[in-house]
Amino acid sequence: MAINDKNLYLEKILIKTAMVLMKNLNVVVMIFISVFMCISTYGIIYEGSAKEFLMQAPYMPLAPWKIPTVICLGMLLLIVFINIKKEKEKTILMCAIIELLLAIGMIYITNFTYKGLILLIFADYMKYTIKTKHIYFILVISFIIYLFADYDLLSRQLRLISFSSYISYYNNFTREILLGIKSICNGINSILFIVYMIFLMHNQSVKNRYMRKLNNELNNVNERLKAANIQLEENAKTIANMTKTEERNRLAREIHDTLGHVLTGVITGIDACIELISIAPEATKKQLEIIANVARQGMTDVRRSVKALRPDALEKMSVQKAIAKMIDEIILSTGIKINYNNSVDLANLNDDEENIIYRIIQESITNAIRHGKADEIDISIEILNGVIIISISDNGIGCDNITAGFGLLHMKERLEMLNGKLSYDGNNGFKLVAKLPKRLS
Amino acid sequence: MKSKGIFVFIFFILAIMLYFNNFDFRDDKIITIGVFTGSYWNVQNGNSYKILDNAIKKFQENNDIKVEYVSGITKDDYSKWLYSRLLEGNAPDIFFVFGEDFNILAELGALKDLSDLIEKDDKFNTEDYYDSSYSCGRYKNIQYALPYESAVNMMFVNKTILDNEGIDIPNVNWTWDDFYNICNTVTKDKNGDGIIDKFGVCDYTWKEAVVSNGVNIFDDNGNISNLNSDDSVDAITFIEKLENLNNGYTVTSNDFDLGNVVFQPLDFSQYRAYKPYPLRVKKYSNFEWDCITMPAGPNGKNTSYMDTLLLAMNKNTNNEKYVWEFMKIMTYDSEIQSQIFMYSEGASPLKSVTNSSEIINILEKDGNIKMRLLDYAMENATVIPAFKNYNNAVKMVDSAIRDILDGNSNISMSLKKKQRDINTYFKVEN
């Protein structure tokens, strides 16, 4: 659904205009009332009716000139507070309370002649209902104040001088005009309030609908994203399988090409030697030397093949450095804390030993991060009675029932090939200990 | 930065508002007083500002403060003038308050509550005043004003008629019975033209009767009227009895002035004004006269109402300390207060002044004023209850009782009905 931007914009302007008009109207009305009270009081004094006026007044009114002064300043303050940009919940509530107190004070000074100020504040705070729920409390209070801020209701309790006591100073014609102006102002204020409220409500409900729509769309996209993710994971698995097959094929080929070739040569040669050995021992000796050379050549080829499977890093630098580099890279790329503590000189280890140490550390870190969600890993390598002990523990979630996956199984197999042992524990994070007897090279 | 600016601005405006609220264009070094010329007691007086000027002089001996007043406001205009100034917000720091205005001004909140000042002032003892005078300045149990000058209602007696009839002047504790008997004796057709021409009493109304029979028609809030109690029925019946002596003729104060009436309740100030020499000749010249206490009813005392001219402090004064000092000089200083007996017609609300032998000597020599009698009357005076609508309420009771006296209905029943009406009136008003 496309939201009708033009209508919404028009509504916004209408709301703003109604608010501005309301503010101006209220300022004008309050100043008008206060000036009217002031002028009427002076009129009453000069006419000599002060005694009659005061005799029916329930309290001493403020000095006449003070009323407009206080009202002008009060209205200025109120408008400033209304116009303050309010973002935080605390600010909004504070301002609301101050504004209500100001309004009540001014309404009291003007003897509850006009209570439209409360509507103004009510209207102003309607738009903050999105920002804080507590504002409903303020709205309810101002609504109650509006209900009860009535001269007829309060004149007895609060000792007020009625608007009509002031107005009785004028002749009938003026009286009617003044009362007319008063009720017209009241009416206009109410109409502005209603217009403001209607459009604000409509505007907000449209916005809400729009938001809901957006939310739904977002949910849909999210669902699709999830599906795509699953697909992607499956693809990755397939690719891994394919790589494995490829690697097997390569190994098979390699074995076939090198070992097969050499062994074939060696077998053929040895067969020939068996035939030849009784006839020509000298020639056989020569032949055997050739066979030995072929076997040696085969050994070199096998070594080459095995080297091709070694990690790249080990190819280029010592295992010591390669492990440090790997850990640094992981720390750098994931931000995980890794405490690496090595007290063993790994310089003169065999390639297969280097390989397995490197692979165990690599696999364990990967597991700790991927499955354990750990953010701190302790790695230590030490040597005890000629056995290299690699312990790796993390602070991750661990796991109760460990189903050894490909990684763990692989590690175990490789270690066992070198007479080593692997043990692990999934309680309190994951802890893995690999023991590898050091061979003398 | 922007929000800081806004808060400074708001603070600034609040400061201005607070300042305006307590601000009046007044000089701290000047005290203004609201006074009037002429006597509060509606008698002639040529010494309007004499006591005030003396008080100002005395005040300025110890305080470097100017004291100002607007002269020339007559007693009749004063009340209106005061209300106008109050409404305009520029009333004097201290002003005289008429008894009848006091309740209204106190209810309005125009007067300063003096309780704190009185309590803190070690040199001020409220017991130095006559209790009745002092409580004239009390409204709803709060002291808003101090008494400056008091006058009680007293019974004026035409001694000449009593002498002719061979009757002695009643003593201080005389009763309604004595009162009625004398009236009954003297009321007669002296010149034999068939019309009564000598009378017992004039201007003795329900107000005097009710109070001397121990009835408070209104409670302190002015809410309930006690109009149909047995004692007030007795009082009204007594008035009716007295009126019946005159055979329907309405006796006026003019009859008293002409020397045809024995008793008339009058203010003590009248006595003060007309008893001493030159003025004595002007009024009541053809008979000897004196004044005594009011007669006591069967359940009451020889008491009567007291009127007091009060001095009150403006609630908005910003010179409270000096105004209080000046108020004390006006109302509490025996030197200034004793001048009331020289330049005014009331009596000092200070017991020590009204009872001082010096004053008694001066006055008794001058006009034979019985100061002991005055002291007695002041001690026993009844204070007009303090509530805002008192004046209206009295008018209502007045006309109600007039109706009852003019009609033939049962007094008790009619009073009950009138009481209901008046209570309804109060309910609407309050």
- Overall pLDDT of chain A, averaged? 84
Which blocks of ≥5 consecutive residues of chain A have pLDDT under 50?
none
Report the end-to-end length of chain A measured between terminal Cα atoms. Answer: 76 Å
Radius of gyration of chain A: 46 Å
Envelope shape of chain B: globular
Name the poorly predicted regions of chain B.
none
Q: Biggest interface between protein chains, with counts per chain?
A: A-B, 29 and 26 residues
Strand content of chain A: 5-15%
Shape of chain A: rod-shaped
Number of helices of chain A: 14
Q: What percentage of residues of chain B falls in helices of 4 or more residues?
A: 40-55%
| Portion in strands of chain B | 5-15%
Q: What is the end-to-end distance of chain B?
A: 54 Å
Description:
The complex is a heterodimer of chains A (441) and B (430). By secondary structure, chain A is α+β, with helices and mostly antiparallel strands. Chain A has three domains: 203 residues, no CATH class; 83 residues, Single alpha-helices involved in coiled-coils or other helix-helix interfaces, CATH 1.20.5; 126 residues, Histidine kinase-like ATPase, C-terminal domain (Heat Shock Protein 90). Chain A is built from 14 helices and five strands. A five-stranded mixed beta sheet of chain A has the order 1-2-3-5-4. In chain A, β2 and β3 form a beta hairpin. In chain A, α1 runs antiparallel to α3 and α1 runs antiparallel to α5. The model of chain A has no long low-confidence stretch (mean pLDDT 84). Chain B has two domains: 205 residues, Periplasmic binding protein-like II (D-Maltodextrin-Binding Protein, domain 2), CATH 3.40.190; 197 residues, Periplasmic binding protein-like II (D-Maltodextrin-Binding Protein, domain 2, 3-Layer(aba) Sandwich), CATH 3.40.190.10. Helices cover 48% and strands 13% of the residues of chain B. Chain B is built from 21 helices and eleven strands. In chain B, α2 packs across α14 and α20 packs antiparallel against α21. Classes of the chains: A alpha+beta (441), B alpha/beta (430). At the A-B interface, α1, α2 and α3 of A face α1, α3 and α4 of B.
